Amino acid sequence: MNYKRFFPPAAIRPFVLFFWEFEGDFSAAAPYSHAVSASVHSKLAFQFKGQMRSGHTGRQEPLFKSGFQCQNKACYQISAQHSVGIFGVYLQPLAVPLLFNIPAETLTDYNVEVSDLLGPGGRELEEKIMLCTNAAERIDTISRFIAQRISDVPHGHRGVAAAVQQIISMQGLADIGALTRQQFISQRQFERRFKTLTGFSPKMFSRIVRFEACIAKAAAASSLTSLSVASGYYDQSHMIRDFIEFSGGSPKAYFAEDHTLLLG
């Protein structure tokens, strides 16, 4: 397997965390399987060689050729039994509604063809990416596409967008009640605007942010107990419950898997 990560131009960093490219030669005798866990990040992926399958064990279907793996709270599997090549864009949490003017809550837990979501513009983008011959060309093509779509956060949502960023910066441990009071709007309005921007309720978003931050801290943790404390869980059993809900298995099972392919 060959996995590479590339950082985006400064102009689009508020919308793109990084680009990645993955290639591998697999077979029925030596298949590839990857668990896609819950994430507040959507991913835009283009399969320029082969086509992976997605779903649950025994019920997998071909994954889109080019499309969005949207923010998700449900976990599933992707797999391949042949050669694959994928170029991907790991998006920031607010990217989809701001770049494409689509309420995030309509996309949560969906995988969507780029042409279905963006129409003719999506088909044109897919064609351009598929004609590229290397990662540098793909990065230039998608960076230009994103730069042309950058828009400001709607005025009525700016306070909520700031709250989203605060939850991320505090790794899911921000006081949701305090954040709501800072907006000078009702809790119902805050939650509705929050869901429009992220696809989740503030509580669910915070839980998934904490879960993803916990994964990022695992390499430096000496034990699951120390990891749970460092991640802000009440105790180890609390952390285990989140792992089972968001990844489909225990922390031990999660960290035993290969997570080279950052599709989720």
From TrEMBL:
The keyword Cell division does not apply. PROSITE patterns: HTH_ARAC_FAMILY_2. It comes from the Bacteria. Keywords: DNA-binding, Transcription, Transcription regulation. One of its GO terms (molecular function) is DNA-binding transcription factor activity. InterPro entries: AraC_XylS_family_regulators, DUF6597, HTH_AraC. Pfam families: DUF6597, HTH_18. Residues 158-257 form the HTH araC/xylS-type domain. PANTHER family: HTH-TYPE TRANSCRIPTIONAL ACTIVATOR RHAS, HTH-TYPE TRANSCRIPTIONAL ACTIVATOR RHAS-RELATED. This is HTH araC/xylS-type domain-containing protein. It comes from Pedobacter yulinensis.
